Amino acid sequence: MARKPVAAPGRRPIRKVLVANRGEIAVRVMRACREMGIATVAVHSEADAGALFVKYADEAVAIGPPSPSMSYLVKERIVEAAQQTGADAIHPGYGFLSEKADFVRMCDAAGITFIGPPAAAMDRMGDKVRARETVSAAGVPIVPGTPPITDPEEGRAFAAKVGFPVLVKAAAGGGGIGMKVVEREADLLPAIESCQSTARSAFGDPTIFIEKYVAEPRHVEIQVIADAHGNVVHLGERECSIQRRHQKLIEESPSPAVTPEIRERMGRAAVEAARACGYVNAGTIEFIFSRGDFYFLEMNTRLQVEHPVTELVTGIDLVRTQLRVAMGEALPFTQADVRQNGWAMEFRVNAEDPARDFMPAPGRIGRYHEPGGIGVRVDSGVYAGYTIPPYYDSMIAKLIVWAGTRDEAVDRGRRALREYVVGGVRTNMPLHLAITEAADFRAGRLSTHFIPDHPEVMARAAEIAAEGPALDLGAGDAVRVAAIAAAVQHHAAVAG
């Protein structure tokens, strides 16, 4: 039986939430707030003045020029916007300030509830080296690795001990930035120097470390949620192995490789990792999974892009739960209450061209039609006539499907992808269709190398892209303009 929530002493209800983010995740958070009777505030750059999330919010505050460094990453402006509008809480979404401990402290100092973990937990888990030490002490398995490297000779000695290949990683990194696989000794020193340079530029911290590279790696992660009353629960796993340049493209839950016994062990390890850092609110423990063994990779101290697949298989609204935890309530469910039902799959819809090394493809959206039907969900931040700005991540929407089995989920995803029309810009949906045709994908034989290991998938994606949208919504803008121009010319010729 679910426990009745108990209000924590000293906490107050949340009446207005400022969403310190943009795009689909801002809309997603605002929808949960609206269902709970909580008012919302959008903050936006000049480039996002006409965005869907700005139109959806109850109030909106402009915070600066298009560049994130002058708008979405300016902590002071966002806190000022919350104070100006009377928002008593801030939801950071993912990216931007979502994992910045100093932003949490700034919210705390201003008396604003941060809908996420405490700053101390972020500090402990945000640095990969410190995170490894923390979870290892809690008994969570980790990939053999080094402490922070200051002398390249330390890295050479480690690689000689465990054998190549090894993985050089930025301690403060994320999203594959500052990470290189090294196959031989001659490439180790250049890789260390390159990763240090990248880390210094991207994160202001050149610290790197080295791990043993795991063969045939799968990326499997566990969703956790914790409250301020000491309750920590996991919501099962997500398979996130289909990636490009270390960034996820397709996620699913459950994983086709995880057995009930492995799920129990992995879930227990994730819970212990969260407890070890004093975690509160939603977070994700990421593991490298290979041939039945799993190793801690990192913790994402925020809501994940792929959270909807967990919601669909468990029936738990993660954003609503985040809000309730932030108000001081206890989790309304125990570990025994959590059940996985069916199969969910998420396709990230990016405005990018896979044929041109995934180059972003911003521009104006002409025709726009979202798929529907049973088991189909679209979390989107765009609409027909919207111009995708070039300053931000290329993801414009997420197509999520649910079905009783994995095969049915793949089939439903393919149907929905062919219904989804985004005119005027290139997207990666042809690549998703090509991946779902691949025999290895259908069989659940996945790894983080899936795309480079299957060059035929890219060729097939190009063929699908050349075919155009499968759903015919009539003449597009270009066709209509050409027809009008021809009519005008004909009328002029007749009049002449």
| Strand order across the largest sheet | 13-12-9-10-11-14-21-19
Low-confidence stretches: 1-10, 478-485
Describe the main β-sheet briefly: 8 strands, antiparallel
Tell me the β content: 15-25%
Helix percentage range: 25-40%
Give average pLDDT, whole number.
92
How many distinct beta strands? 22
What does the secondary structure layout of this molecule look like, with pairings?
Blueprint: E1 16-19, H1 23-35, E2 39-45, H2 52-56, E3 59-64, H3 75-85, E4 89-91, H4 101-109, E5 113-114, H5 119-126, H6 128-137, H7 152-162, E6 166-170, E7 179-182, H8 188-203, E8 208-212, E9 218-226, E10 232-244, E11 247-253, H9 260-276, E12 281-290, E13 293-300, H10 307-314, H11 318-326, E14 343-350, E15 352-353, E16 359-360, E17 363-364, E18 368-369, E19 376-380, E20 387-388, E21 395-403, H12 406-419, E22 421-422, H13 429-437, H14 439-442, H15 450-453, H16 455-467, H17 477-495
Parallel strand pairs: 1-2, 1-4, 2-3, 4-5
Antiparallel strand pairs: 6-7, 6-8, 9-10, 9-12, 10-11, 11-14, 12-13, 14-21, 15-16, 17-20, 18-22, 19-21
Helix pairs in contact: 4-5, 12-13, 13-16
Short description:
With 496 residues, the protein is an alpha+beta fold. 36% of the residues lie in helices and 24% in strands.
3D architecture notes:
The relative contact order is 0.11. Helix 4 packs antiparallel against helix 5, helix 12 packs antiparallel against helix 13 and helix 13 crosses helix 16. The chain is an alpha+beta fold and 496 residues long. The N terminus is likely disordered.
